[in-house]
Design brief:
By secondary structure, the protein is an alpha/beta fold. The protein has one domain: Rossmann fold (3-Layer(aba) Sandwich), CATH 3.40.50. 47% of the residues lie in helices and 17% in strands. The protein contains 9 helices and 8 strands. The strands form 2 sheets. A 5-stranded parallel β-sheet has the order 2-6-1-7-8. It has a 3-stranded antiparallel β-sheet with strand order 3-4-5, with no helix packed on it. The longest helix is centred in the C-terminal third of the chain and has 20 residues, at 169-188. The chain is globular. The structure holds 2'-deoxycytidine-5'-monophosphate (DC). 2'-deoxycytidine-5'-monophosphate (DC) binds next to α2, α4 and α8.
Length: 226
């Protein structure tokens, strides 16, 4: 972001929230409706974790990981994510990679290494960006800030259904446990922890479907544009 614009509102809708809150699907739909670009910032942390794994660099090695993050050989092309020309669209969604992403995301130098790359997604088309610190750090001048959440139980249920797994029993408990662990890690880290900023609209989607959630955000957008 150009510092001379720092006191103006940017053409960005920032959507932050915990894992499995549905923010990706919702943010992508809002972007399509408003003809804006979409940034899935979590994908950059996931790509960094995957790239480290492929390069046999331990997720605890901050300096090496930050150096990988600053030179990620990534391309976003026609809905696919390529790392070194290899299609990793599915591979980065693995829960283990999600945990690794959460671990490396706690390193300040990794966050700095990915900062400008995220801001570069903003063009005159405007952007809908989702993540954990879109409103607090990456786009603090966003014109609309949403904190999207849902109870851990509801999120675990949605994740189980997405994976075609039962919504009770041992596999469900494992999903719920993973979600709670990742929430705790993302909320308690020292840098850019997940938390709503003072000027965010909070949207609890526990009792809402995707369509209703998208509609709420579009309504807020129309109100602030009046
Ligand atoms: O949104 P996601 O589940 O794809 O994100 C994976 C991890 O990356 C998440 O647990 C924390 C980290 N992350 C972050 O620290 N900041 C962001 N803006 C996006 C993701």
């Amino acid at each position: 972001m150009n510092s001379s614009l720092s006191h103006q509102s940017s053409k960005v809708i920032a959507i932050d929230g915990p894992s499995a809150s549905g923010k990706g699907t919702i943010a992508e739909r809002v972007a399509a409706i408003l003809h804006r670009d979409y940034l899935d910032s979590g994908a950059l942390y996931r790509l960094t974790a995957l790239y480290a794994q492929q390069s046999q660099i331990d997720w605890s090695n901050e300096a090496e990981i930050a150096s990988l993050a600053s030179a990620l050989p990534v391309q976003f092309s026609e809905g696919k994510i390529l790392l070194h020309q290899q299609d990793v669209t599915q591979a980065i969604r693995d829960e283990k990679i999600g945990m690794g992403a959460s671990q490396i995301a706690a390193f300040p130098s990794v966050r700095v290494a990915l900062l400008q790359r995220q801001r570069d997604f903003l063009t005159e088309r405007g952007l809908v960006a989702d993540g954990r610190d879109m409103a607090s750090v990456v786009f603090p001048d966003a014109e609309l800030k949403i904190f999207l959440t849902a109870s851990a139980q509801v999120r675990a249920k949605r994740r189980a259904l997405q994976l075609g797994l039962p919504t009770h029993g041992a596999s469900f408990e494992k999903i719920l446990n993973d979600i709670e662990k990742r929430d705790a890690a993302d909320q308690s880290r020292a840098v850019a922890p997940l938390k709503p900023v003072a000027d965010a609209y909070t949207l609890d989607t526990s009792a809402l479907n995707i369509q209703e959630s998208v509609q709420k955000i579009l309504n807020w957008y129309r109100i602030i544009k009046k």
